[in-house]
Design brief:
single chain; alpha/beta; Rossmann fold; 7 strands
């Protein structure tokens, strides 16, 4: 402190420099504080766009991909509870019928089912789905279906089959499903498209490079089409998601940062049109702990720091997964 005082006393220029840099520092701290307070207001105070705008209670239909398990099933259930009819799209017809029956009995809405394996769906399959959707009023699309690496794996060691599946499901399915429904949304000048993003798309994730790249694509693409479709009455929202208890995450226990699907989906549907912790257009990080984590990533340390952290985390997970695989192999010999 004495050194600063001596520096200031040496000349008026020194005093001016200290004052300028002090003012800049105070301004930066003030802006950071305001942005953090905005996150808290978004996730704890504000309410998003009411789903009635998108046909809830007046005959609108929501289409959900990957709808028979985890987050997708929860989206179908909660959208039906808001009195949206639902179209369930997933691989297993038996599971689809079971979920549809459960939703109809519980919420007294209409349902449709369409069995589709997105890893090998061709144009004929998407056209067949389009024939089902064109006669109804699709007001909401939830691009939820997704797949990941089996374990964290260096890119050069990953199988061609897994690379293919990630691209087909995480990238192409979102684009093709949007192509199917967006013309009728534009025609009515009303629609909502929710894309299930990931923190892996926010910060590059070594050892999950293809998955991470697919989610980065989804983020960029959502922002681009969000700007295109907004003037035509269609709202696009890429949802930044940290871990949620699900079969894909392979996490079974909930924690402060890892919610069950029910509260997570509730936060998404309750904050349509609100950015939460996200700082990019057409993007939301609605769940409160995820929102704070998103804000920290954007405002604390460097991107190199966060990539390095991801590298360490995934390298450790890979070591443990390989040890488990070896144990199972030896046990089965």
């Amino acid at each position: 402190m004495d050194q600063i005082v001596q520096f200031v006393q040496k000349s008026d220029v020194n005093a001016t420099l200290v004052a300028v840099f002090g003012a800049i520092g105070a301004a930066v701290i003030a802006l950071k504080t305001i942005s953090f307070l905005k996150v808290l207001v978004d996730v704890f105070v504000r309410s998003g766009i009411n789903l009635k705008k998108y046909g809830a209670g007046r005959g609108g239909w929501a289409v959900i991909t990957g709808a028979t398990d985890g987050i997708g099933k929860e989206f179908a259930s909660q959208l039906a509870s808001k009195k949206l009819n639902v179209v369930l799209v997933s691989r297993s017809m038996d599971k689809l019928k079971a979920v549809a029956e459960e939703i109809e009995q519980k919420y007294n809405v209409e349902t449709k089912v369409f069995a589709m394996d997105f890893t090998n769906a061709d144009d004929a399959k998407y056209n067949a789905l389009k024939q089902v959707l064109d006669p109804i009023e699709v007001t909401v699309l939830v691009n939820n279906v997704g797949t990941n690496h089996e374990i964290p794996t260096p890119f050069e060691e990953e199988t061609d089959a897994i690379v293919h599946n990630i691209i087909e499901v995480n990238v192409k399915a979102a684009m093709k499903m949007t192509k199917v429904v967006v013309p009728q949304m534009i025609a009515r000048k009303n629609g909502l498209i929710i894309n299930l993003g990931s923190f892996a798309g926010l910060v590059p994730t070594p050892y999950l490079s293809v998955y991470s790249g697919s989610k980065a694509f989804l983020s960029s693409w959502s922002q681009a089409i969000g700007a295109e479709l907004a003037p035509q009455g269609v709202h696009v929202q890429n949802v930044n998601t940290y871990f949620v208890v699900s079969s894909m995450s392979k996490i079974r226990r909930s924690s402060l940062l890892i919610p069950f699907p029910k509260p997570y989906v509730k936060s998404v549907l309750g904050q349509i049109g609100i950015s939460g912790g996200a700082s990019t257009p057409s993007t939301s990080t609605p769940y409160w702990t995820h929102a704070i984590a998103n804000w920290l990533i954007d405002n604390a340390f460097t991107r190199t720091f966060w990539v390095d952290q991801n590298y360490k985390i995934q390298a450790d997970i890979r070591k443990r997964a390989l040890r488990k695989r070896d144990r199972e192999t030896n046990k089965n010999k």
